[in-house]
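Handoff note, outgoing to incoming analyst
You'll be picking up this chain. Sequence as last confirmed:
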Amino acid sequence: MPQSNACPSVRDSLRAKTAAAHTRLHTHPFFAALLHGSLTRETYTAMLSRLLGFHGPLEKELFSAARRLGLESIMQGRRRVPDLELDLQDLGVSQSQLDAFPQARFQPIVTKDKFFGTLYVREGSTLGGTVLARSLDRLLPNHRGRRFLSGHQQDSKLWRKFLEELELAGTTGILPVLLEGAEETFAAMEAWLNGACSA
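Most recent structure output, in case you need it:
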């Protein structure tokens, strides 16, 4: 049987490079408890609070970088932080408490390769959240407080659009740094969430 000489796609390369980090996040105490149905309302609120501290500054930097790099069209329809804030408000968190949550810090994204690597992790978490959202039926039977994880109807379409842009970006010779950007974002997310558990 002849050997295939086809090169792996950019997405396949990203999957392979970040597989270990992805697995560790899936077994993180927050997400494991949610999947097993043992997450309390208080712990769920703490989880969303920590996610806001990560995604808030990350989303802000991604939109800023998109403007600097001429990639605004890619970010259309990709705001997630407002849903996260509304979920926390549904859970009884006040605006003053939202404003006081600790926030992660990110270096400015100055190249397209880092932008695509970072956005790959952020957009992948959007689809992963829909799987986690199914485990919230017992905790939140009225569906309030689950916008962020549930996502939106257009998310699958946005993901496919992003993958197309990702493959085009990978053909320009920036794949190594693109992979580095994804690894750094996964590492930052792990460190931020683990800091919540050890606090």
